[in-house]
Amino acid sequence: MSQWIWRYGEFECYHNMILHTRRQQYGYPEPVVWKLYAPEPVVCFKKEVTTEGGVFRIHALGNISVIVGAEPWNQKKYGGQREIKLEPGTTTVLIRVANTETFPCIYVDGVIESDDTWLCDDMSQDWKKVGTSEMFASSDQTPDHFPFSYLPVSWVKKEKVEGGVLFDFGKETFARTCFSGLGEGPVKVRFGESREEAMDAKWCVIRFEDKPEKGVLSYIPYAFRYLFVSDENVEVKAEYEYLPLEYKGSFHCSEEIINKVWDVAAYTFHLNSREFFLDGIKRDRWVWSADAYQSLFVNRYLFFDKEIEKRTLIALGGKQPFKVHINTIMDYSFFWIISLYEYYKTYGDKDFLEQIQDQMKAVMDFCLERRDEDGFMRGKPGDWVFIDWAPMDKTGALCGEQILFAKAMECYAAICAVIGRDDRGLGGEAEKLRKQIFEKFYDTEKKVFIDSYESGKRNVTRQSNILAYLFLGCDDTVKKDIYERVVLNDEVPQITTPYFKFYENQVHCKAGNTNLLEKSIREYYGSMLATGATTLYEEYDPTMTGVEHYAMYGNPFEKSLCHAWSASPIYLLGNFRLGVENTGIAYDTFDVRPNPGDLKGFQGKVPVPGGTVSVSVDQEEIRVYSEIPGGTLYVDGKTYTLEAKKECRVRRKSDV
Amino acid sequence: MSQWIWRYGEFECYHNMILHTRRQQYGYPEPVVWKLYAPEPVVCFKKEVTTEGGVFRIHALGNISVIVGAEPWNQKKYGGQREIKLEPGTTTVLIRVANTETFPCIYVDGVIESDDTWLCDDMSQDWKKVGTSEMFASSDQTPDHFPFSYLPVSWVKKEKVEGGVLFDFGKETFARTCFSGLGEGPVKVRFGESREEAMDAKWCVIRFEDKPEKGVLSYIPYAFRYLFVSDENVEVKAEYEYLPLEYKGSFHCSEEIINKVWDVAAYTFHLNSREFFLDGIKRDRWVWSADAYQSLFVNRYLFFDKEIEKRTLIALGGKQPFKVHINTIMDYSFFWIISLYEYYKTYGDKDFLEQIQDQMKAVMDFCLERRDEDGFMRGKPGDWVFIDWAPMDKTGALCGEQILFAKAMECYAAICAVIGRDDRGLGGEAEKLRKQIFEKFYDTEKKVFIDSYESGKRNVTRQSNILAYLFLGCDDTVKKDIYERVVLNDEVPQITTPYFKFYENQVHCKAGNTNLLEKSIREYYGSMLATGATTLYEEYDPTMTGVEHYAMYGNPFEKSLCHAWSASPIYLLGNFRLGVENTGIAYDTFDVRPNPGDLKGFQGKVPVPGGTVSVSVDQEEIRVYSEIPGGTLYVDGKTYTLEAKKECRVRRKSDV
Fold it and tell me: What is the least distance, in Å, from the CA of B623 to any CA of chain A?
């Protein structure tokens, strides 16, 4: 079956470039703040083919030149001819394509077909397997256009106000809009995540002032719940734009607020799962590496869509020369390398590792060159250092950065082992760095990690310790100390971002303090929903009221009210309540450790390669049904081997 | 005065990309056969400014976001606002620009102005001085559009033939065309450099078959002398498209055929001097490094246009990662580095060397990594090895390639010395390689160089020996042997390309055999003109007749009849007859060595920085008038210091 083919990575490169130049901010298009990479303008496709003779046809984005024949002395040139007759036998087909507007790609059908067995060169004799996607399997579905789906959505309330009309769509959406019945204009159009935003002429983030043509104005999709249009006669048509993803994971429990959070998290996450994993759907709509890292985990308990993970990781990796951290942020380069290995573990996609290895090496080389003499990485001029929005001591070498750096080196070495490439000693380097982290950042009196040793302040934050807990491979004593002395210690400032809640809640669950996940969901997310949220916010402070919730970065409505990193309950409930976790490569082995936590019971599904695992817990019984083999069920200290497609029922101990 | 500014090199990168995707071949657009580089989609411009306060305006290609203030705590964001008011005092202006269609660039006027004092970053904290051009000094003259000039041109003969009309424009031109009065069509339009080409439906290189709109068809500029249109009612309007360059050099002598060759060479060269130096105006219209190298020399005796040299060298250098030779050809990478130093010597433009040094290092590093253990460079899979179209022995390491490689290293070291950068020992490496070339390729019996030592054939060609003569720094004995045993030896196969005639004629002139330049011009170019050439051909064999002259690459009309590398008489007559040659940096010192050669007399001008040097030779007297100081006149073994703007007259010895 024919597919569109392109130089591996170029599809992602192109859509990443387009996506990052689509932000709207206070009436202007806002250029991205980090480095973008452009597609290659000219490439050549090649395949050795054996046929009984016949015609093949070429569809292309760009101008083509075709050569048939492997060697200069038997080559025949066909120029831009789109239908070519092959003689019976074996020969080589070369198709050179130039495209300076989108990116070069082709679709070949007939006696030969384009698919992932073709090779592609960027005109430097650097032949690689092509990129493909199941989305582009017909000649008229061209890959310059990302094939979203559309559904009409309607307002639920309409109100004449301030000389115009305010539409309320009832919940956050992302939709293309067409306004008709307009006068001569110019007409003001404001897309608000909140009513207040839509009504604020100055601080509404997505807003336009345009002259209608024949009474009509149309806009590409933007995020909104409310729409204000400064014309009382306006009619609106809106179409929700989305990636059609199957909801493979599910979770339903005895407590309505938790179910509601799960549902809203799933919707929030779906809105942000598009060409790539986005941070939020209103403001940036950009691809951030550490945000994407968390999205990988959520995706695995909701859509289990390998393709969006792959697209995101390719897009984030960028191109060579690699001269600046991913998203300009040091920790984000580390998270990208860690994500590559996480991706491999989940899907067993060795082919991807083969394709990405050169870029991975470029990113790692960039990091290694920026090490200081002591092996630590400090922010160089122009680098951003994130970790979290928190009152951390960011002097000199930071504990959190070194932990992630060591983990990235460990993952790099693990990937090299998979694809049989020399890890250049990075496995050992990771170990060495971990020892140094203990030496410099572990406070033997406090028995926890400090943010920085260079300042002398010996400041302790949740962030550094949680990262140590999750990424440093600490022993149980150290972990216990971290949990008790930091995570359960109210004197250490609380995490305020859903971003870091993802990590903190993991620690709660791993440390076995089983009711804190539910507490966090109820209190943090529950009260967020109580403010009227129809999707989950980028940040949330329960002590605020009213429009305070919408402010961020010093501006009244700049907070994203639909942010992917807030969807972590999907992952947490799937992994720590339904209890399904991959322990091998692509779930060739996996654990099922159902854990009621603070809940009376629940049922749900976790997607795995080739099916799902269904888990149901009530007060008497645990039932697990896996569509694939490889699972081990853990209940009350006992293990049960799960057979494929055979339900396993275990009675719960009465005292649990 | 404000100018458009861009990230240094991006203007050339963009136009190089566009230019290389404009070729037409047998009815199809033909993609380039080598690697192209795309412009950066997002960059940031910066300047620290001190003003008394007031408004500045921004014009941009792309979306912008403006920040005023040097540090995060005093920065103010203006988004896409195009008019901004500055407070009095000193601050920093940052303008981020995204453009995925052409390339990001801005024009700022008002209280601050964009010019070459601004810096630009490709979002990797890699701040560099911006690129500018005098061509773009007004806000509405945007650099995405190369500003050519236009002149109407008319046909001189019109003929109804084969159901259509054949127009003869009298000479080769490069013009945009508009055909009117057409029927419904489809109409065939053929652009021919020869009558035969225009009349050949199958083998005419530039041809179209299009449906007129309202009786009209328009085409972007193509090369032609003849136009065939398959509609008897057609009317044509044509406008010659050209770069307005001043003819600063001139040459006029006692022999009409030589004057005619000079004039036709100048016109040929002008047609090919556009965004960059092109190879030929009909077929490729591409930028080839070794062709461009020769164009530098011609330019210096005709237009003395520094800007086209700079644009060409920037475009050829490409970007990083540098993964394949320039134009895919090994010798062309060497010629590029040699050209950089030639450019510096001519114009003293140290700023250019500063800007290009990173790319020069990338190209040289690529070459150094491809050396074999013996230090020689052999063609690797995918490399092309050119030197010349000639029956050379191309086995293993080639003499010509090593000679150029050594010269490139020498030039690299010389450039490093100018800009105070470490040459990494390449000066010494060049010397070492030269010794090795003598050891392996110099045949001590034949007393000349062989092409290859690995084959055992010990083949002798003009090409290898001429390159040794010109680039290897041989002593006079070796040079004399080369000249007598190879260049004057009719048993060594003749040079057949004007490309290598450029080098051979230099050797004739340097070796003092003073009448051979005229002989070559008369016989080779004179007979080319006798075939009806109105511009100079890519290749010419005097033994051919009729349409044979138009065939190349196995196809009847694929030869370029207007090829830049044939314009060398401009340089040769200027350098070896008028005798003006730069001997310092930017003509701070220069020689004038008038040499009548085989001519009774001549007069002409050679451009130099800030003026011209006029030289006139008749049978009695030599007169030289230089508008700049620094010159030394050499006549009959005596030297005369040339004062600026003062004529120097020297009587010739009667026996010369």
Answer: 54
Contact: A100, B21; criterion CB under 8 Å: yes
End-to-end CA distance of chain B: 54
The whole-number pLDDT of residue B656 equals: 45
- Helices B289-300 and B498-510 cross at an angle (nearest 10°) of 50
Contact yes or no for B30 and A81 at CB 8 A: no
Question: Around Cβ B171, how many Cβ atoms within 10 Å?
Answer: 15
Domain ranges, ordered by start, for chain B? 5-131, 149-242, 250-575, 579-651
Residues B41, A39: C-beta atoms closer than 8 Å: no
Nearest to A232 by CA among A176, A185, A168: A185
Domain A149-242, CATH: 2.60.120.260
Chain B residue numbers touching A65 (CB-CB < 8 A): 25, 28, 30-31
CATH topology of domain B579-651: Maltose phosphorylase, domain 3 (2.60.420)
Q: CA–CA separation, A266 vs B619, rounded Å?
A: 96
Q: Yes or no: say if A535 and A268 are a contact pair by the CB < 8 Å rule.
A: yes
Q: Is the pLDDT of residue A270 over 90?
A: yes
Interface contact flag, B79 A381, Cβ < 8 Å: no
Q: Does B35 contact A21 at a Cβ distance shorter than 8 Å?
A: no
Residue B454 has pLDDT above 90, yes or no: yes
Identify the pLDDT of residue B2.
98
Closest Cβ opposite residue A40 in set B38, B62, B98: B38
pLDDT in tens, A452-491: 999 999 999 999 999 999 999 999 999 999 999 999 999 9
The fraction of chain A above a pLDDT of 90, given in percent, is 97
A80: nearest CA partner in chain B = B28
Q: Is the pLDDT of residue B406 over 70?
A: yes
* ipTM summary value: 0.97
Q: Could you tell me which chain A residue has the CA closest to the CA of B31?
A: A98
Given an 8 Å threshold on Cβ–Cβ distance, is A126 in contact with B98?
no
Q: By the 8 A CB rule, do A540 and A524 touch?
A: yes
Write the pLDDT tens digit of every residue in B361-403.
999 999 999 999 999 999 999 999 999 988 899 999 999 999 9
- pLDDT tens digits, residue range A413-434? 999 999 999 999 999 999 999 9
Identify the pLDDT of residue B648: 98
Of B20, B31, B36, the CB nearest to A64: B31
Q: What is the DSSP string of A205-255?
A: SEEEEE--BTTBEEEEEEEEEEEEES-TT-EEEEEEEE-------EEEES-
CATH no., domain A5-131: 2.60.120.260
Amino acid A514: pLDDT:
79
Determine the average pLDDT of the residues in A13-38.
Answer: 97
Tens of pLDDT, residues A43-70 = 999 999 999 999 999 999 999 999 999 8
Give the gap in angstroms from C-alpha A66 to the nearest C-alpha of chain B: 10
Hey, do B5-131 and B250-575 end up sharing a CATH topology, with the first three levels equal? no
**Residue whose entry in the numeric block shows the structure tokens 């049978």:** B619
Contact state of B39 with A38 under an 8 Å Cβ cutoff: yes
The rounded distance, in Å, linking the Cα atoms of B293 and B346 is: 13
Query: CB B32 to CB A38 under 8 A?
Result: no
Span A168-188, average pLDDT? 97
Asked if B340 and B411 count as a contact pair (C-beta separation under 8 A), the reply is yes
Mean pLDDT to the nearest integer, B511-539: 94
Higher pLDDT, A77 or B514: A77
CB contact under 8 A, A323 and B126: yes
Answer yes or no: are the C-beta atoms of A517 and A509 closer than 8 Å. yes
Residue A233 distance to chain B (closest CA, Å): 30
Q: Which CATH number is B250-575's, of 1.10.3720.10, 1.50.10.10, 1.20.272.10, 3.30.70.3340?
A: 1.50.10.10
Closest in A21, A98, A328 to B98, CB measured: A21
Report the chain A residue with the minimal C-alpha distance to residue B104.
A31
